[in-house]
Amino acid sequence: MPAMRGLALLLALLGLGSCGTPSRDRDGARGATDTGSEQTAMVTTTGTIAIEEVARYPLPGMAFLPSAVRPDPAGRMLTYLWSEDGSLTRQLYAHDPVSGERKILFAPAGGGATEENLSPEEKLRRERARERGLGVTSYAWAKEANRVLVPLRGEVWVQDGLHGSPRKLAGGDGKPCIDAQISRDGEWVAYVQDDELYVVAADGSGAPRQVTQGARGTGRTHGLAEYAAQEEMGRSHGFWWSHAADKLAFEAVDETAIPIWRIVHQADATPSWEDHRYPFAGADNAKVRLGVVGRDGGEPTWMDLGMDGESEIYLARVHWLPDGTLMAELENRAQTRLQLVRFDLATGARTLVLEERSDVWINLHDLFEPLREGQGELAGAFVWGSERTGFRHLYLVAADGHVIRPLTQGEWLVDALAGVDEKSGWVYFTASKDGPTQMQLYRVPLGGGEPTRITQEPGMHSVVMDRARAVFVDSHSQMSAPPSVSIRKAEDGSLVHRVAVPPDPRMAALELPPPEIVTLTASDGTELYGTLYRPAQGSGPWPTIVSVYGGPHAQRVTDSWEQTVDMRAQFLRGLGYLVFELDNRGSARRGLAFEGAIKNDLGNLEVKDQVEGVQWLVQQGLADPQRVGIYGWSYGGYMAAMALMRAPGTFKAAVAGAMVSSWDGYDTHYTERYMGTPAGNPDGYRDSSVMSHVDTLEGELMIVHGLIDENVHFRHSARLIDALVKARKHYELLLFPNERHMPRAEADRVYMEDRIREFFDRTLRAP
Asked: pTM of the entire structure?
């Protein structure tokens, strides 16, 4: 559920998830055909920004920004996804940093400009990934060969180097090839089709071979990540190539014990529906096993996934090491323990390497890098991330699991591991060392020492390093300037080449002054960060609207361009509203104590911090205390509803979009991490339910939801509406019959923004 805001949205928009953090709750819809480049015929201008611009994607300043930028295997060219017309439909390009020349490397026939020809499975995977892009949306170079893989509309394509011709290896028979992955040597491609794992030679010399058996037609799957892994654990893969490409580890998932949740497509002329196995908090989870099978198939060996004293586990991460060792990260259902284990491939027996424990919860991460050339004490050693001090830091860990030395420390945290240069003895990482609104690249000696900052421009930096660890691709963003992509030297961050992109014509037409970051101190002494969008008219106090997410595992307030192009905030600012965003306690990148303050009691402390934020605005003479509204989506929708009901003296109106109304109706992995189970924490679940507070509702409430939302079901809004009716409380309802967790179709988004504007004009304009 965590919102795609702040750091998470920035990284996803830049397409560099390899050095980022998990992200969730982003836009999605069934059958969307929005390319993001078409203007709606009717343009409604109110204030300084047309309301159609609020609903339009890509965002201003990002239409021509390359995404998924990576060096080619030879290190001479950059490859990336790019749109020549500034739309959401992208193609794969190669870019010569010396000449600046850009050419198409791979373009789908017909452009791939719609979702209509995608299978239901592919559409749902796009939902889990919050993918808006069309055309080519992903690609992967073989790590040790000059061959590129391009999954496209359920088909598997490869191309040899920059000058080869694309060839289709599989797909096109009505059964999509899911999660295609190329082996490190570039010789093989594996994928899942019809619930089983297949392997095909990348040179096209043979037919695909099915290497797993027994799942098809049983309600089980081989090689596909389960819903909770994709939605909540930041793990989209369900199989993994060994380094030598002779074996595949794969996940066997059995969801048959999970009851079916049916979603009916109410707007279809012909009745249709979709069935989902949804793991509700406190109820059954998917049962998972980890098997290893040879590239040619055969009987798999099953790994021992047991954890002592635990009846249920999550398979959090799987790692193949260069020497052929298989490791995995196992998490208990309560998410207070995580074990890194090593397997015997012959028997499946497990050996515990290390264990992490937390009184708060375990935040999963991707901070794991085995050393390839370690000798003596460093033989088999690896770099590992841990929050054992309350802040996520890097440690050098021996093969037997003991910590050789901490590599970083302090009251800040590491976001991502960019790379390890064993030859020169450096570890590169991005972190919040220079403040929680910043993300900079640093390096620290592998032998111990103080970190050195490499990137110098303020803001948010997401990086991908070349294989030699000599240069890195830097995607940089800050409030005062649109994002840019450059190549820089790893040793000092000096500029090698800046990728030139055409100017976005929308930038000249739109008035988008950067917001300002403010700090305030809560009554208990906690420092909180906020973002202010001041109206151009007058000096205040103004009618005020709080834009909220407020949930854990997400951050909104960063020095990033994404803040500047918060188009709803800019639109409302143009109408004369003061718009305010605040990262309350519970939000990410401030350490476990700050994040874990909300444990077992969601919707309480977060609301109190938002109230203190409004009080601060009033004290500063910025907000009119009689005209304060709030809006949010997903967890933010939950927060908006809870704020309206728990703080009726502060908030007069709220727009609650796609909200969770009761946590017993959301999924296991997310909900139980923060709330435990309904049976183990009945008081917490009761107090954290919106329905428990309808009697205190005084202000105006608008509920917004997509009827085919398979993540936060419409059931949440329906349950709240039922409670409101019984309490004889007024509400307004805005439904989108063909939308999932967030409206994706442009016409729906324009209509939604206009209704939100009208709602706040009606409820907050009059003193």
From this structure: 0.93
